[in-house]
Structures are given as C-alpha cells and as structure tokens.
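Why should sequence recovery work at all? Because a backbone constrains its sequence more than one might expect. Tight turns favour small or flexible residues, buried strands favour hydrophobic ones, and helices have their own preferences. The token representation captures these environments compactly. In the example below, the structure is given first.
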C-alpha cells in the first residue's frame, strides 16, 4: 500500500494547484488560456505514454545504422503526437466552444507571454517525462510501471472536466465557465495527488485501476487479482 501523504505534502499540493486560480482572480490571467493549457497538458501526458508504448513494443534495436534508429525515434514521437491531436478533437470540444464563444483568436492566444511560457514549460516537462519513461521501460514492463493506471488518472481527470462541461451547468455561467472548469481540473488534480484510489473509484470505469480495498484479495494488485481469477477459471 502506498504511504499516505503527510499534511505538508497535502498543503503543498493544494497550494500548487490553486496557483492558476489565484492568477486568474488576482493577477489578470486569462481563464480561457489556462483551460487551454490544461487541455494541452492532458494531451501531452497521453502522448508521452503513447510514444513510450510504441517504442516498447517496436524497439529500434533491430534498425541498421544510426540514421535509421533516429528516424524510428522521431516516428514514435510523430505517431504519439498524431494520436494525441486526434483524441484532442472530441475531448477538447468544450474548450473549443468556450474559446469560440469568447471570440478568442489564435493570434490573441500567442500574443499572451504567459500562454507562450506555459506551452514551453509543458513541452519541457513532456520531454523529461518521456525520457524518464523510455528509461523505465528499458528495464520494466508497462504492467510493472502500471501505465494503465497512470493513463486512467490522466484521462479521468479530464473526464471530470467534461462531466461538468456537458452537465449544462456551465451554460448559464457565461464568461465564468472557463474559470469553473479550471477549478474542476485543479480539484481533480489535488484529489489525484492526495487520494488517487478514491478518485479512481469515484469516476466511471476507474475502480479497476485502483488499489484493492483493505481485506480485498489479500492486498493483491488489480492485475494480480485478474490473473488469479483467470487461472482459477482454467483449473475449473
């Protein structure tokens, strides 16, 4: 069982995730821009996992020559970015609608230095996360790294935003809709850092990736429990 976070860890997590809300309320940050950055962050996190899995299942070690191996590496990144961009169309629909309703143009977005800086920081974080995942997959399997659980946390955090966006509640908020969705994303991020298993159990389809409750399957992981049940069925 993972060690519960300390009160200091919880306080730091809450403070870190409330920074964007404070920036919007007191520093004049654009809620639309922050929401779009959160979407980009979600897509990049998924893209990192896509690239890592692609490299794991089709490693470039059999490619002759350095040029071929470099080409293969760029291929993994290209495939991951394509998949992330494709998924961003349905997942980002509420954001696109809000931006369109606010008459926010691409030029206005990139004229904001805070938005440009946010994109750069996310790109750097994604590169570092991808490099760490590549190294981890060199010695561990995706199952050992629990990539499915990691993907579920990233995906379901954005699902929480979509659930609120499509509830109809934000339609009456007008220009405050982006702020509410940013707050939902921040709250989900805090929940994931503080109590990820509770978050997974609260979200549709997430319970299977949560740690078993005390006394369930003798503390075995979800993957181990599934394999044990499958083995038991074969014996029967």
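From this structural description, the recovered sequence reads:
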């Amino acid at each position: 069982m993972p060690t519960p976070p300390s009160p200091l860890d919880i306080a730091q997590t809450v403070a870190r995730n409330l920074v964007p809300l404070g920036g919007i309320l007191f520093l004049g940050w654009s809620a639309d821009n922050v929401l779009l950055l959160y979407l980009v962050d979600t897509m990049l996190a998924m893209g990192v996992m896509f690239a890592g899995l692609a490299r794991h299942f089709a490693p470039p070690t059999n490619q002759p020559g350095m040029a071929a191996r470099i080409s293969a590496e760029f291929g993994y990144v290209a495939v991951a970015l394509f998949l992330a961009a494709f998924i961003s169309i349905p997942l980002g629909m509420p954001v696109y609608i809000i931006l369109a309703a606010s008459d926010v143009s691409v030029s206005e977005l990139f004229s904001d230095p805070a938005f440009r800086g946010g994109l750069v920081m996310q790109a750097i974080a994604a590169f570092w996360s991808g490099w760490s995942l590549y190294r981890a997959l060199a010695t561990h399997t995706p199952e050992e790294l629990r990539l499915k659980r990691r993907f579920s946390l990233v995906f379901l955090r954005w699902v929480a935003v979509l659930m609120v966006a499509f509830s109809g509640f934000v339609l009456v908020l007008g220009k405050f809709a982006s702020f509410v969705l940013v707050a939902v994303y921040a709250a989900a991020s805090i929940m994931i850092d503080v109590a990820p298993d509770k978050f997974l159990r609260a979200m549709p389809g997430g319970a299977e990736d949560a740690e078993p409750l005390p006394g369930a399957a003798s503390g075995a992981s979800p993957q181990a429990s599934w394999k044990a049940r499958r083995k038991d069925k074969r014996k029967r």
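A few observations help interpret the result. The mean pLDDT is 86.
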